[in-house]
Design goal:
Elements: E1 11-14, H1 30-34, H2 37-43, E2 47-50, E3 54-55, E4 67-71, H3 78-90, E5 94-99, H4 109-116, E6 128-130, E7 140-141, E8 149-151, E9 157-160, H5 175-191, E10 195-198, E11 222-223, H6 225-230, H7 234-249, E12 252-255, H8 265-269, E13 277-278, H9 282-285, H10 301-315, E14 322-323, H11 345-356, E15 361-365, H12 386-397, H13 402-412, H14 449-453, H15 459-471, H16 476-481, E16 483-486, E17 495-502, E18 505-512, E19 518-522, E20 527-531, E21 537-545, E22 548-557, E23 562-566
Parallel strand pairs: 1-2, 1-15, 2-5, 5-10, 7-11, 10-12, 12-13, 14-15
Antiparallel strand pairs: 3-4, 6-9, 8-9, 16-17, 17-18, 18-23, 19-22, 20-23, 21-22
């Protein structure tokens, strides 16, 4: 595996609208981020990914871009952004922007010109198709519900949008579109960006002719992913994107990839892959529903552990995943990947231990380091997210009561991750001096940065120790490049344990997700590097096998206990 500058780093995602507001308008901004760079540096962060701050109507929270070259005034100015780049560089930190190039906003100049003349030059920047027998060109359902085809008033044409109707898909078969996109990517990299997180990139290749498929729901539609999965030749587009942009700047890229074909992992993120890395969504997919949130099976420790173990084992020595437990599109990890009885500080630290020490690049999401949790809303109107409103509607139409549908939103909504960052216990959690754009989680009085910085036993203090251990000179190599080896003992128990091994080093990471104490026999002597609670102990253990006396150790793991042990 080629060594890269980003290996051994820690990444952190900022959702700028909810991170820190510097001017009191209730919306987080670039100057707010600048003011918190020292906090992130002290935490142990090296790479910062900033969700979209481009000019946008915010139909989908900035993932509908109306001008790729402008900063939206809600977040500040281009001068503010240049200062952010400079301040990050002073601290040896790297900035990533979100790259949203499957679609743009319907307010983008390109699309406005296309609507005026669908058969003209800019019409070919998008997908305009004639309807069939007075209906849409094909029967695909968008990610946000309803048809992917929107009629163009006064014509027999429809335009394609795999997401909201305000997010028309760009036509990647048109060389002029690629030329425009590549120019824009290089413009940002020339400014000093270290790279990009690449949004929804698997959607750029469409199946020619847009054929109909067998419906998978009562609405007569089929999920648009069916068409995406059938598409051929996406690798050629990715290779061109890499060669024309990222490769020229030694840029780091992390892709949001779903629906990858079997056996293509190294093509995507190997040494010569299209991208540097991609997020491991295996744990998330292990809990996905067939028709929506309402029929999702929910958390199952054994299914979750199996999914993680499988993806870690499959990536072997040649690729790095980006490991996450939450992001702006998911609910909070501490409310999702822990049993109810473990949703406390010990459980949150335990989840952090296994997540951060997996093989790959750790990505934290703002507030994860203090243990922020899902936020209950009174009614559906308190939610802002377009997808949450759609999922609520689907659940109600499936027969769920209002109370049941609201509970599903509480468990799954993307807005759980978008409530404002909790900086202190004062009014509005120190996020803003004004009125927050979105409801704060009422638990900010207890869960906040200022309180946890003063408490050596807090979740935040534990995260700092954990990140420091991963980057410590003595262990940096084994945690960065060491093999991932599952600990196969006690597989029937709620034990998540694995080794990180490199040459003579052997580090055991073990966590007890169960209610009862687990005792794990260690064949070698162990040195405790980190533990999340006092009850986690290594005891000397004398075993007699026949006439042989064996000196060993045993690890005592109480419920929600986690340990990192050098063997």
């Amino acid at each position: 595996m080629k060594r890269q500058w980003w290996h051994g780093k820690i990444a952190y995602q900022i959702y700028p609208k909810s991170f820190c507001d510097s001017d009191g308008d209730g919306i987080g901004d670039i100057r707010g981020i600048i003011g918190k760079l020292d906090y992130l540096k002290e935490l142990g962060v090296d790479i910062i990914w900033i969700s979209p701050i481009y000019q946008s109507p915010f139909i989908d929270q900035g993932y509908d871009i109306s001008d790729y070259y402008k900063i939206d005034p809600a977040f500040g100015t281009m001068e503010d952004f240049d200062q952010l780049l400079a301040e990050a560089k002073k601290r040896d930190m790297y900035l990533l922007m979100d790259l949203v190039i499957n679609h743009c906003s319907d307010k983008h100049e390109w699309f406005q010109k296309a609507l005026r003349e669908p058969e003209g030059e800019y019409g070919k920047y998008f997908y305009f198709e004639k309807g069939k027998d007075g209906k849409a060109p094909s029967n695909y359902r968008s990610y946000f519900g309803g048809s992917v085809w929107e009629p163009v008033p006064g014509t027999d044409l429809y335009y394609l949008h795999l997401f909201a109707k305000e997010q028309p898909d760009l036509n990647w078969e048109n060389p002029k579109v690629l030329e425009e996109l590549f120019r824009m990517v290089n413009w940002w990299l020339d400014k000093g960006l270290a790279g990009f997180r690449i949004d929804a990139i698997m959607n750029v290749k469409k199946t020619e002719g847009f054929p109909d498929y067998e419906p998978d729901g009562d609405d007569g539609l089929v999920m648009c992913t069916r068409m995406i999965e059938e598409a051929e030749g996406i690798g050629g587009l990715f290779q061109k994107l890499k060669q024309e942009t990222f490769e020229k700047h030694d840029a780091f890229t992390v892709a949001e990839v779903f629906n990858m074909k079997e056996g293509e992992l190294e093509k995507f993120i190997g040494d010569e892959g299209y991208f540097s890395t991609m997020f491991d969504f295996a744990p998330l997919m292990a809990m996905a529903g067939g028709h929506g949130w309402y029929d999702a099976p929910g958390y199952d420790f054994f299914r979750w552990r199996q999914a993680l173990m499988k993806s870690q084992t499959e990536c072997g020595e040649n690729v790095f995943y980006a490991n996450i437990i939450e992001n702006h599109d998911e609910p909070r990890g501490a409310s999702t990947y822990l049993p109810e009885y473990a949703q406390n500080n010990d459980g949150t630290k335990m989840l952090a231990t296994v997540s951060i020490l997996l093989r790959g690049l750790p990505f934290l999401y703002q507030g994860q380091e203090i243990g922020m949790k899902n936020c209950k809303m009174k009614d559906i109107d308190e939610y802002n997210d377009i997808d949450t409103k759609n999922q609520y509607k689907i659940a109600r139409e499936a027969g769920l009561s209002e109370e049941e549908a609201m509970y599903i939103c509480f468990k799954h909504s993307r807005d759980n991750a978008r409530t404002p960052m909790q900086w202190n216990a004062e009014e509005n959690a120190g996020f803003t001096a004004g009125i927050p754009w979105m409801k704060l989680n009422p638990n900010y009085k207890e869960i906040n940065v200022e309180t946890e910085e003063k408490d050596s036993g807090s979740v935040l203090s534990y995260y700092k120790k954990l990140l420091a251990l991963r980057k410590q000179e003595e262990y940096r190599e084994v945690f960065t490049y060491g093999d991932f080896v599952p600990e196969m003992g006690a597989q029937e128990q709620m034990l998540f344990a694995f080794h990180r091994k490199k040459e003579q080093q052997d580090i055991l990471v073990a966590a007890n997700f169960g209610k009862e104490e687990i005792v794990l026999s260690l064949e070698k002597k162990g040195k405790m590097l980190l533990k999340n609670q006092e009850g986690v102990l290594i005891q000397e253990n004398t075993l007699i096998q026949g006439n042989t006396l064996i000196q060993g150790n045993r690890l005592i793991l109480p419920s929600c206990g986690a340990a990192v042990i050098e063997l």
